[in-house]
Amino acid sequence: MAALLPLAAISLIRTFPALQASTPPWTAAPIAAAAAVIAGLVLLVAVDAALEAGWIRDMADLAALGMIATAFAVVALKADGILGLGIGITSAGAAFLIGSVVRHRAVAARRGRVAGLIVAFALIEASLAVILLAAGWSIPERTAPIFLAGGALLLAAAAAGNLDDPARATALGIAASSAGAMAIGPSFAAESVVGPSGMALAALVLGWRLVSDRPRRATVVDPAPRLLPEPKGAPAGDPEFDELARLTRELRATLDDLVAARHLIELQRIEIERASSTDPLTGIPGRWPTLDRLRTEAAEARRYAHPVAVVLLDIDQFAGLNHEYGLDVGDEMLRRIALRLRVRMREADAVGRIGADAFLAILPHTDEEGAASFARAVLDRVLERRVMTERGEVTVSLSIGIALMRPGMTLSGDELLAAAEEALASAQAAGGNRIAFDRLHGLARIDEPGGKPEGSPRVGAEENA
């Protein structure tokens, strides 16, 4: 019934011609200006609603209200702007119809809501530009009723699509009837007042709906960055609320499952990284993590000009040991040597297994004396510890190669390792069970406990090991 008020007013004016005569012509512009102001005020309410809840329908409504406000503002400032008014009403009807189609779709992120408002205001500016340019086009002014009638049809379709929202449907119905009234009688003073008055009434109804719906909107859609809060305060039995509550519970359960799965994946990733970087037999780092640490320590030594020593250890005749006593005995020897190395390590040192029977110790801030002391202590401890087997006691010996980089030298990690391998080969060539230094020491060897390597006057700390 409210939607039929503008058309009923037109019928009443035409039934009683005295009403037409009693209306002064100058009233059309103030009524149009009032309609523009009311639509603009309601637009601000729609902006607040769109930012608060993020409904796309609210963004479409504010775009439509802006188009109506600009159209009536042009009419108030320019008496012959009826064509622009028709274009503006048609554009607003299209925006309202879009809002009816999207219905309850919302934008969750605040950035998306702000972007939606920017798009809405851009559409308002585009509508104003079209309205202002329409006066310069060759479109006859008599086509204005056609635009108004088209706008009325769009508004009526939007109202029909919102029968579940009585307030919005009523506002759009009044707007459709007002557009129809302007299409029927835009040229008479009394009839020209009906359309703007009806549009102002439609805007007021739409604004009342936005204000009265604010508590429920704030309860159902929480803009705070929380994960799907449980909606509260909606009336029991409301189909929209029940559906939203069900979806909220399902999505929360899905998110909880995803968080738990992500946590499990992270734990598995950490375990895989640990397993790939640790030798499972000895419990010390494997080849690639150890070589990475060597390159890092070599770079640090070059940058800060401090010494670094590399000690490469290999079990003598390890293949024959496995063949004679079995793999279990060989594995036990590897574990014991790894343990002896770890016991002798400082916090800044590093050790790893880089081959089947080869170990690499990295000793930052260590010179010849410190490296020789470390190597002699490990060698003596390995010789002292014997493994009991079914075939008697087993003793192993080590060949050890030492390479050093003194302050001012620019060796890389790979060059240090190559120098240590060359020293190890020298110790093995001499029969094993001894310590040899790199080429800088003339491949000097400590052939017997307590002996000093030839060509290395600084080494001798092994006597204190």
Description:
With 465 residues, the protein is α+β, with helices and mostly antiparallel strands. The chain folds into 2 domains: 2-220, Rhopdopsin 7-helix transmembrane proteins (Up-down Bundle); 287-464, Alpha-Beta Plaits (2-Layer Sandwich), CATH 3.30.70. It has 16 helices and 8 strands. It has helices at residues 5-15, 17-21, 28-53, 56-77, 82-102, 110-134, 144-160, 166-184, 189-212, 214-220, 239-277, 287-304, 318-325, 327-344, 368-384, 413-429, and strands at residues 308-315, 350-353, 358-364, 387-389, 392-394, 398-405, 434-437, 445-446. The strands form 2 sheets. It has a 6-stranded mixed β-sheet, with helices on both faces. The protein has a two-stranded antiparallel sheet with strand order 4-5. It is rod-shaped and about 130 Å long. The model is unreliable at 219-228 and 448-465 (pLDDT under 50).
SSE arrangement:
Blueprint: H1 5-15, H2 17-21, H3 28-53, H4 56-77, H5 82-102, H6 110-134, H7 144-160, H8 166-184, H9 189-212, H10 214-220, H11 239-277, H12 287-304, E1 308-315, H13 318-325, H14 327-344, E2 350-353, E3 358-364, H15 368-384, E4 387-389, E5 392-394, E6 398-405, H16 413-429, E7 434-437, E8 445-446
Parallel strand pairs: 6-7
Antiparallel strand pairs: 1-3, 1-6, 2-3, 4-5, 7-8
Helix pairs in contact: 1-8, 1-9, 3-4, 3-9, 4-5, 4-6, 5-6, 5-7, 7-8, 8-9, 12-16, 13-14, 14-15
